[in-house]
From TrEMBL:
Keywords: Iron, Metal-binding, NAD, Thiamine biosynthesis, Transferase. It catalyses: hydrogen sulfide + glycine + NAD(+) = ADP-5-ethyl-4-methylthiazole-2-carboxylate + nicotinamide + 3 H2O + H(+). Pfam families: Thi4. The gene is thi4. The keyword Glycosyltransferase does not apply. Involved in the biosynthesis of the thiazole moiety of thiamine. Catalyzes the conversion of NAD and glycine to adenosine diphosphate 5-(2-hydroxyethyl)-4-methylthiazole-2-carboxylate (ADT), an adenylated thiazole intermediate, using free sulfide as a source of sulfur. This is Thiamine thiazole synthase. InterPro entries: FAD/NAD-bd_sf (IPR036188), Thi4_fam (IPR002922), Thi4_prok (IPR022828). Belongs to the THI4 family.
């Protein structure tokens, strides 16, 4: 009976995918542009990478461009990456302009094509930690969280966890709530007013490992470092994702205990 077979395929294949994703090299929280760039580079280099995205549609803040004008801008120094991902774009006035839907789709397609597993509708509600390092994440279905259902989560072990949650820097906030001290340059998580040029520089400088096993990238790195926001210019998000991937590639030989 077709209907039953279809249901069986879905349940079996999803279970298989989830089982393979319970012990990974890198768990990325949030499925925005920095996450997709990082996961593309890491997966392409043979790392086992998963992304947890609480929304139905991964892609974060890319889809709407600037003020719903679905066009976004990147700097010319990321042209090589757009080429690698086979994107269509237009060079204009010293910048590159890209249709934001095409940009999001290309990132999603390429990241998943090289092996990243994206779990949408999954909310990361906590981290796994030992005294020495962050060891993974605690996940639940996002609708369970939204409906405030009393349902316990499950855990995922990861050598590295990346906070790619954008402006709120949710993972860093969770870790601070657990009384772990993180060196926040301003003493708290906050952003400053729009300044595209400064913001694009700042995001890269603040893309780093902030605790053993926990890294920040994208707008989360701006919020944690306390820098200016930069609106719909997205080169910094790509460069931040690529930088974090390279940091991990150079340090992956960590032994995770527990
Ligand atoms: C699962 C979660 C959780 C959670 C959040 O905001 P994003 O697009 O992330 P970035 O940093 O890659 O890109 C930022 C960019 O989109 C942007 O907003 C810019 C450049 N702004 C500049 C400005 O001036 O405003 O995506 C983060 C994703 C979202 O899709 C969230 O739904 C998701 O993370 N998320 N997913 N578990 N706990 N928290």
């Amino acid at each position: 009976m077709w209907d039953l077979e279809i249901s069986k395929i879905i349940v079996e294949e999803f279970t298989e995918k989830l089982k393979k994703s319970l012990d990974v090299d890198v768990a990325i929280v949030g499925g925005g542009p920095s996450a997709l760039a990082a996961s593309y580079v890491l997966s392409k280099n043979g790392f086992n990478v998963i992304i947890f995205e609480e929304k139905n549609e991964p892609g974060g803040g890319t889809w709407g461009g600037g003020m719903l004008f679905n066009e976004l801008v990147v700097e010319e120094d990321v042209e090589w990456f757009l080429e690698e991902l086979d994107m269509k774009y237009k060079k204009t006035k010293g910048f590159i302009s890209i249709d934001s839907v095409h940009f999001a789709s290309a990132l999603l397609y390429n990241s998943t094509k090289v092996g990243t597993k994206i779990f949408n509708n999954v909310f990361v509600e906590d981290v796994l930690m030992s005294k020495e390092r962050i060891n993974g994440v605690v996940i639940n279905w996002a609708p369970v969280i939204r409906q405030r259902l009393h349902v316990d989560p499950i855990t995922v072990k990861a050598k590295y966890v990346i906070d790619g949650t954008g402006h709120p820097a949710s993972v860093v906030n969770m870790v601070i709530d657990r009384n772990l001290s993180i060196d926040l340059p301003l003493g708290k998580i906050r952003e400053f007013p729009m300044n595209a040029k400064e913001g694009e520089k700042f995001v890269l400088e603040n893309t780093k490992e902030i605790l053993p096993g926990l890294l920040v990238m994208g707008m989360a790195a701006v919020s944690v470092g306390g820098g200016p926001r930069m609106g719909p210019i997205f080169g910094g998000m790509l460069k931040s994702g690529i930088k974090i991937a390279n940091i991990i590639i150079e340090n992956i030989d960590v032994e995770v205990k527990g």
